[in-house]
C-alpha cells in the first residue's frame, strides 16, 4: 500500500492544465472578470458541497467517495475540452469542486486507517511526507509534459484531454484498494440539508465565541487573508510569462504559442521544485525566527512587498523582475503555511482546534470568492500590473490590522488571553 499511496499522489498532481489555465481561458475569449467569476464559483461550490459529500462518504465508504471524486473530475475535464462557452465552464468548475470535496481529506483518512490496522501509526509522518513528495514530483513533471503538449499542438485545449489519462488510472488504482480502508459505514439519518444548516449554525456560533479573543481572530484573519491574496493573484503569473516569452530575443524561429509553452512550462517546473523544497525546509527556517508571531508578521509584510514588486514590474514591462518576485512569493507561501498552522495551534484552545481551522478555511474561501472577480475586473480596466499593485496596497493597509502577537501560556488552555 505504501507504493500505491505514493502512486496516488503522483497521478493526482498530473494536472497538465494548472500552468496554462488562465492562458486557456484567454484563448477561449474570456475576460479577466469572467475568469475571476469562474474561480469564484469553484471556491463557493467547494464549500457548499463539503457537508453533503462528507455525509455520502460516511454512508457509502471512502473508496466509493474517491471513485465519485475522480469521475466528477473526468466529466469536468471533458467539458473544458469539448466546449468553448463561459456558461459551460461554470458547470465544469462546479463538477471540479465536487471532485475536490469528495477527495479532500478522504485519502489521508484511508492512509491513517491502513496504518491503524497494521499497527504502524508511528510512521504516519513518513507516509504523509513521502506521498507529498511524490505529489510534488508529479506537479513538476506535469509542467514539462504540458509544455511539450502545447508546443506540439499549438493549443492550450490539449492539456485537459491529457489530464483525463492519469485520472482514469486513478480510478483503477483506487478500485484496487482493500475494502477495509472504507472505514466505519454510517447510515444517513435525516435530511442532509438539515445537517448542512446545523453545520453552518454550529460554525457561526463557534466563530462568534472566537471573536471574544482578539489574539485568535487576528491569527485566523492573518492566515486567511494572506492565503486569499496569494491564491487569487498567483495565476496572473501566466499572462506575465506569456509577455516575457514574446519579449525574449530567443526561440524566434518558433511560433508564438510554442515559445510561450517553453517559457511557461520551464518556469512552473522550477516553481514546483522550489516549493517542494520550501515546504520541507519550513521547520528549519522557523527555528531561526525570533518567535512564531514574528515569523507570521514578517512573512506577511514580505509577501505584500513581493506582490507589489511583481505588479510594478509588470506595469513597467520588466517581466523578468516580476517573474522573480512571483517565484519568491511561491516560496514564501509554502514556508509560511506550516509556520501559520504552528502559530494557530498556540492561540486556538486544543478542544477548539478542528473548529478553528474550519472557520479559517471558510473565511479564506469567502475572501477568495470575492477577490477573484475583483482582481479580474481591475485587470480588465487597468491591466494586470496595476491590478496586482492595488491588491498589494490593500495588503499594506491590512498589515498593521492583522499583526499577530505571541500567545501567552493561558491562551491554549482555553482561557482568555489578557
How is this structure best described in words?
With 418 residues, the protein is mostly helical. It folds into 2 domains: 189 residues, Up-down Bundle (Growth Hormone, Chain: A), CATH 1.20.1250.20; 216 residues, Growth Hormone, Chain: A. The chain is built from 17 helices and no strands. The radius of gyration is 22 Å and the shape is globular. The C terminus is likely disordered.
Average pLDDT, all residues: 83
Structural class of the secondary structure composition?
mainly alpha
CATH topology of the largest domain, by name, is: Growth Hormone, Chain: A
Alpha-carbon distance between the two ends: 49 Å
Per the principal axes of the C-alpha atoms, what is the gross shape?
globular
**SSE sequence, one letter per element:** HHHHHHHHHHHHHHHHH
Strand count, sense and closure of the main sheet? none
Range of helix content: over 70%
CATH architectural grouping of the largest domain: Up-down Bundle
DSSP, total strands? 0
Annotation field: number of helices: 17
Record the SSE blueprint:
Blueprint: H1 2-12, H2 21-27, H3 32-48, H4 50-60, H5 62-82, H6 86-103, H7 106-118, H8 124-153, H9 158-175, H10 192-210, H11 214-233, H12 237-247, H13 256-287, H14 292-315, H15 319-347, H16 353-382, H17 384-401
Helix pairs in contact: 1-8, 1-9, 3-6, 3-16, 4-5, 5-6, 5-9, 8-13, 10-16, 11-14, 11-15, 11-16, 11-17, 12-13, 12-15, 13-15, 14-15, 14-17, 16-17
